Amino acid sequence: MFDGNLRKPFDAAVAPIGSGLQKLGVSPDVITAFGVLMAGACGVAIGTGNFFTAFLLLLATGIPDALDGAVAKAAGTAGPRGAFFDSVSDRLSDGLMFAGAGWYLAGTDEPRMAMLPFGLLIVASLVSYMRAKAESLGYDAKGGLMERAERFIVLGIGLAISPLFVPVLWVMLVLTAATAVFRFHKVWVQASATQVRTTPAKAPARRRRARTSERRSARASRSRARRSNR
Asked: Rounded to an integer, what distance in angstroms lies between the CA atom of residue 127 and that of residue 2?
C-alpha cells in the first residue's frame, strides 16, 4: 500500500534530509547498520516487557530505514550493493523484533502464544521473498494491505498501547497473510498470461513432430507390405 501510493511523495520529502546528511559525510551503510542495532535493542525491550521503550526504539529503527536510501541517492552511490545490504538488514531487523515478541509471550500465562510472532515472521518473509523472486523473473509483485511500512506503524500502535499488543499481532498476521495471497495471485496471473502468449510458438514444432511420426508410420506400413508380397 505504501509503495503504491505514498512512496514518491515520501521520497521527495526526505530527499533534502538525505542531501544534508550526505554533505555531513554520513554513509548510507552506517545509517542502515544503526537501524539494525536499534531493531536489536527494540527486540530486547519487547522481550523484557518495556513496551514504551520499545516504541521509542521502533521509531529509532524506522528513521534510519527511511533515510539510508535518500543519503545513497544524494551521494550517487545507490546501486545493487546498497539495495542488497538494505534488504538483508530489513529481514534481520524484522527477525530481531519478532524474536523479542516471542520471548515476551513465552513468559506469559499462555507460552504457546510465542508461536504468534514466529508465524508472523514466516508470512512477512514470504511476502518479501515473493516480491524479490517475482522481480527477478520480470514480474510486478508490489502491493498489499500489510507491507513493511504498515507493519511498523501497526506494531508501533501495539507497543504504545500495551493492552493491544497481542490483538495487534493477530491483526498483523491476518493482513500480512492476505498480502501474501494477493501477491501470489498477482504474479500467478502475470506468469499465466506469459505462458499463454508463448504457447502458440510451440505449435509448429508439435505439427512437425506429428508429420514426422506420420511419415515414419507410412514407411513402416509400406515396408511390411513389401515383405508380405515376397
From this structure: 14
Q: How do residues 3-17 score in pLDDT, each as one tens digit?
A: 656 677 777 877 888
Question: Across the 230 residues of the chain, what is the mean pLDDT of every consecutive 10-residue run?
Answer: 66 81 85 94 96 95 86 83 89 95 94 94 94 92 89 94 95 95 94 70 61 65 53
| Cell triple for 136 | 527477478
Over the range 80-95, which residues count as b (16 or more CB within 10 Å of their CB) and which as e? Answer: eebeebbeebbeebbb
* Length, in residues, of the chain: 230
Q: Do residues 159 and 52 make contact, with C-beta atoms less than 8 angstroms apart?
A: yes
Given 65, 68, 86, 90, the catalytic residue? 90
Chain segment 213-228, per-residue pLDDT in tens: 666 666 655 555 555 4
Residue 94 falls in the annotated catalytic set:
no
Question: End-to-end alpha-carbon separation of the chain, Å?
Answer: 80
Contact between residue 17 and residue 70 where contact means Cβ atoms under 8 Å apart: yes
Q: What is the pTM of this model?
A: 0.77
Task: For residues 230 and 226, give the distance between their C-alpha atoms in angstroms, rounded to a whole number.
Answer: 7
User: What's residue 24's pLDDT?
Assistant: 85
What is the CATH code for 2-195? 1.20.120.1760
- Residue pair 124/108 in contact (Cβ under 8 Å)? The answer is no
Q: Taking the domains of the chain in order of start, what are their residue ranges?
A: 2-195
